[in-house]
């Protein structure tokens, strides 16, 4: 079931994340690779080719095992990990999780002790960004992902 919540503005999300009180991120270079369908894997491979070399001042250095379904920038509290083709998370339909729209892409926001988790809404395959605590007050980390996600990952629902 697709969620029909309207995404919120960035500022309320930043306030929510600020109130969450998170601790540092795991600096491990290993990332679980999703197992999407062939069609979804093709969209994720297209996304991988469009991803930026630098995000929030952090250079890209992909995790192991190497896969077009995963990408990584930074380390420790500045770590940003992208996973494409994850199974549909329950959070995208749960109204207790706020939404944010950045650069035309809607995201569900989940506060975690390790730093915010962002999951695309209204698109398949699902894209997840796990970010370090440095970004607990800054949803602008999503900005460089807007154009690549919008171009490579098909919308499942048009939202304003």
Structural notes for this entry:
The protein has three helices and eight strands, in the order ααββββββββα. It has one domain. It has 160 residues and is α+β, with helices and mostly antiparallel strands. The protein has a six-stranded antiparallel beta sheet. A two-stranded antiparallel ribbon has the order 1-2. It is globular, with a radius of gyration of 14 Å. β7 and β8 form a beta hairpin.
Tell how many strands the DSSP assignment holds.
Answer: 8
Total domain modules: 1
- List low-pLDDT spans: 1-28
Report, as a whole number of angstroms, the end-to-end distance. Answer: 19 Å
Please tell me how large the radius of gyration is: 14 Å
Can you describe this structure in just a few lines?
This protein is α+β, with helices and mostly antiparallel strands and 160 residues long.
How are the elements arranged and paired?
Layout (H helix, E strand, L loop, with lengths): L9 H11 L17 H13 L3 E2 L2 E2 L10 E4 L6 E7 L12 E4 L2 E6 L6 E4 L5 E6 L14 H7 L8
Antiparallel strand pairs: 1-2, 3-4, 4-8, 5-6, 6-7, 7-8
């Amino acid at each position: 079931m697709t969620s029909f919540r309207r995404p919120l503005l960035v500022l309320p999300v930043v306030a929510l994340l600020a109130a969450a009180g998170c601790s540092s991120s795991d600096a491990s270079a290993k990332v679980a690779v999703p197992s999407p369908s062939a069609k979804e894997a093709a969209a994720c491979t297209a996304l991988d080719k469009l991803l930026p070399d630098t995000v929030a001042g952090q250079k890209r250095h992909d995790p192991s095992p190497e896969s077009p379904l995963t990408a990584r920038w930074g380390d420790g509290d500045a770590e940003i990990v992208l996973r494409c083709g994850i199974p549909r998370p329950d959070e995208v339909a749960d109204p207790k999780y706020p939404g944010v729209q950045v650069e035309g892409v809607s995201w569900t926001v989940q506060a975690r002790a390790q730093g915010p988790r962002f999951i695309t809404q209204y698109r398949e395959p699902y894209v997840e960004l796990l970010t370090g605590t440095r970004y607990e007050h800054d949803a602008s980390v999503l900005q460089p992902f807007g154009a690549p996600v919008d171009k490579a990952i098909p919308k499942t629902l048009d939202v304003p």
